[in-house]
Amino acid sequence: MRFFLFLFVSGFLLFLACKPPQKKAQKAIIQGVKGNVVALKGNQMPRIGAPPSEPMPYPTTLFFYEPTNVSRTQQWNPGPIFTNIYTKLILTTNTDSTGAFTVQLPVGSYSVFVQVGQHFYANSFDMQNNINVITIEKGKLAELNIVVNNEASN
What are the sequence ranges of the domains in the chain? Predict the structure, then answer.
């Protein structure tokens, strides 16, 4: 009797071990932001006989902060690179290998930064010097495409 019970339990465990894992159904994101991060590098001046540079996918981490004014950051020289941000971090997310991302966010406004090396990158400012602000509306998916061009030249 024990032998048959042992065979039954062993067979059942073997069946479970061979069963392919079930994928969890991902809930569709209907409120938040989606987009792509790409990089432009090198000479961007038009050249005779040479095609323009194509943006390359930029896999990275995105940081969503409460709306951030330049005065609440520490910049690396006057430019788009920031070493410290002194506002509240709301969320981080990673892009995929093509630089694409989709993230669910509550209604509100956020400053979005991209990780470049060990620093933060943002090159968009409004009239009050708020950095790369995006507004999320109820039930809407905002689109945000970011071009990292700190290594591009003219």
Answer: 28-153
Which stretches of the chain drop beneath a pLDDT of 70?
A: 1-26, 44, 152-154
Q: 3-state SS of 15-80?
A: HHHHCCCCCCCCCCCCCEEEEEEEEEEEECCCECCECCCCCEECCCEEEEECCCEHHHEEECCCCC
The domain 28-153 belongs to what CATH superfamily?
A: Carboxypeptidase-like, regulatory domain (2.60.40.1120)
Residues for the chain: how many in total? 154
Can you give the pLDDT at residue 136? 97
Residue owning tokens 């694409």: 100
Distance from C-alpha of 63 to C-alpha of 115, rounded to nearest angstrom: 8
